[in-house]
Every structure is written in structure tokens, then in C-alpha cells.
Design a protein that fits this description.
Shape: globular
Largest sheet: 4 strands, parallel
CATH topology: Spore Coat Polysaccharide Biosynthesis Protein SpsA, Chain A
Order of helices and strands: EHEHEHEH
Number of helices: 4
Distance between the termini: 14 Å
CATH superfamily: Spore Coat Polysaccharide Biosynthesis Protein SpsA, Chain A
Number of domains: 1
CATH class: Alpha Beta
Structural class: alpha/beta
Strand order of the largest sheet: 3-2-1-4
Oligomer: single chain
Number of strands: 4
């Protein structure tokens, strides 16, 4: 089971690195990550671009969408449009996941 992770961002340079690290630390690796930026005016895009290499090294598809500032709902919707997989997980740019978050979620999904 593959998952599309969607992370909307907006002026998140102060905390996006920790969020990205929590995604990279997942024990479950069958996912893609889509960052959908809502017109950031800080260093958010540069930070995302720097982390792009780390995702690629782990053979994880990563996309960065650059939107005009229209709000987090719009940013999420734009990412959903390009998501590759049926299952979608949302993480905000200032959230952290435990390392087993996706593993536990997929186990629960498989129970049904």
C-alpha cells in the first residue's frame, strides 16, 4: 500500500526542517511526498529544495508545488490533484510524526 503525503507550507522556514526530518525518519517507506507552498516569502522553498536530495537518495518521490497565496485549503487541493495514490496522509508544516506513524496507520487500514 502506497501513500501520498501532502504538506502545505507557508512561511514555514523556522520549523519545516523538523517536520521533514520526521517524515524522512518513517519506518514505513512506501510513500511519496508533495509539498504545496502557498506563496511563501521566506526561505521555505529553498529549504524544501535542499531536502529534495535526501528524499531522492531514499528513492522517495518528492514534488514541490509553488502556488500563489490563497490559503492552506487551496494548497492542499492543488496537492491532491497531483497525488499518485489512493491513500492520502496530511501533515502540516509545523507538525511532527513519530517514526511509526505511517506503519501504524497502514496496519489499521489493512484490518478493514
Amino acid at each position: 500500500m502506497y501513500i501520498s503525503i501532502i504538506c502545505p507550507t507557508y512561511n514555514s522556514s523556522d520549523f519545516i526542517s523538523k517536520t521533514i526530518e520526521s517524515i524522512l525518519d518513517q519506518t514505513y517507506s512506501k510513500f511519496e511526498i508533495i509539498f504545496s507552498d502557498d506563496g511563501s516569502r521566506d526561505e521555505t522553498i529553498n529549504i524544501l529544495e535542499k531536502f529534495k536530495i535526501r528524499f531522492q537518495e531514499k528513492k522517495i518521490s518528492v514534488r514541490i508545488i509553488k502556488n500563489k497565496h490563497k490559503g492552506p485549503g487551496f494548497a492542499r487541493d492543488e496537492a491532491i490533484k497531483v497525488a499518485s495514490y489512493e491513500w492520502i496522509a496530511f501533515i502540516d508544516s509545523d507538525d511532527l510524526w513519530t517514526k511509526d506513524k505511517l506503519k501504524e496507520a497502514t496496519q489499521e487500514i489493512k484490518k478493514d
